[in-house]
Each structure stands twice: as structure tokens, then as C-alpha cells.
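Milestone M4 deliverable, item 7.
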Amino acid sequence: METILDISGLTMRFGGLVAVSDFDLQMEKGELVGLIGPNGSGKTTVFNMISGFYRPTAGSILFEGKDMVGLRPDQVVASGVARIFQNNRLFTDFTVYDNVMLSQHVRMKASPAAAVLRLPIYARQEAEAHETAMSLLASLGLKAVAHEQAGSLPYGLQRKVEVARALATKPRLLLLDEPATGMSVEEVTDMMDFILRIQEEFSLTILLVEHTMRVVMGCCPRMLVLNYGKTICKGTPEQVQCDPQVITAYLGEEGGQ
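Output delivered:
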């Protein structure tokens, strides 16, 4: 198997606070790995480091052999890593279609001057972006709402639009930050099916952070557990469920989910 993501010794300090300490993760191409832990355990900090929002205090992040430490978020996206956030980041006043079109600008090579002057190179790229957007929305079951205002959609559909916007950047690694949070039981089941479908259909490697245990246990063959910034367990869902440290730190307080 081909290693697509190789993280070693990743550490993030904020003054005297160590948010993440010596985090290691190797992911093979096509894997779906879950990252769980109680609130404040460091999960989002890990995502912020991978996606370029935080520069690690120490450690390395290699994506497809390329050193990602020090890249800006837009450069990380251009390298093939996309992310959805825990909180809704859609342009809620824009249509679903416009949200997806905007995400493709990271791949468009025409200059701003070419756009203003409507040069042929920009027109070609805009037409290609339109075809990509409509094809993507159709494949995700969102074509019927393409021209509706994103903020007017039910919450479950909004989360799917966020995923569509991420997929429009043509990622090979997708970071999903709590995609099922705040959903009903039926919406959670639908989101689980959606995650598994896009993984296969778009040949994605996915790192998933989620508090809803049914999602990670049902989707992820392999999991890591963080607590106070340190990895306390790695293994299959069955191994994680039986680990005493996990039961104490996480499953014991979230067992109702």
C-alpha cells in the first residue's frame, strides 16, 4: 500500500499549554481513519496543523512525500488536502452552485486580468468549472437544489453542500470535522452512508473527527484516541471500545451517543 499521509512527532504549544504532544499518524491511500477524544483533547488542533491554520511547534507533516509544514491554507488545498469545519462555513447568501463554483478558483490558472477582460483562457476555464460543478452536484444528489440559497436548506443538506464544496477542489485527502454533529438519528444514518459513498466514488483518503460514536464506529476500520493532547489508544473500533483508558476518558462520558 502507498502511504499518502505521514505525520511524526507533531506538537503544538500555546505558551505554557501543550495542546498536542508527539502525535503520529500514517495513513495509506484510500483509508478512512477516525480521530476521537473528549472536548479539548486536541483533535481540531491536529486538523488546524494539517490544513495550514497552525504552524506546529515541532514535528513533520508529509503529504504524498511533500513537506506541508509552513504552507498557507490555500497552498494546502492546492496540494490536494481539503477540509470541512465543525461550524458551518458556507456562504449562506449564495446559491449552492455559487458555493461550489467559488471553491474551484484554487484550481483555475487564469490571471485576474484575464477574468476582467474575459479573455478566452478564462472563458474556457469558467466553462469547465461550470461543468464540474453541475456534474459534482448531480453525483451527490444536490442538483435539484443547485440554484437555491445555501442558507435556506435543511442542516443535513447544508453539511453535504460543504462536502461538495471541498470535493470541488479535487482533493485526495479529505478532513471531516464533526460532519454529523447536531443531526437527527435519520440524518446521521444518511451522513454515514454519504461518507462511505464519497470515499469510494472519489477515491478519497479520509480523516474523520466525530463525537457521534455511531458514525466513527460504523465508518472507520481504524481509530486513534486523543486525551489532553496525547494519543492514548490506536486500533480497531472493537479494540478502542474495550480499552480502559478510552472508557475512562471518552466513552464513559459520551456513552449515551
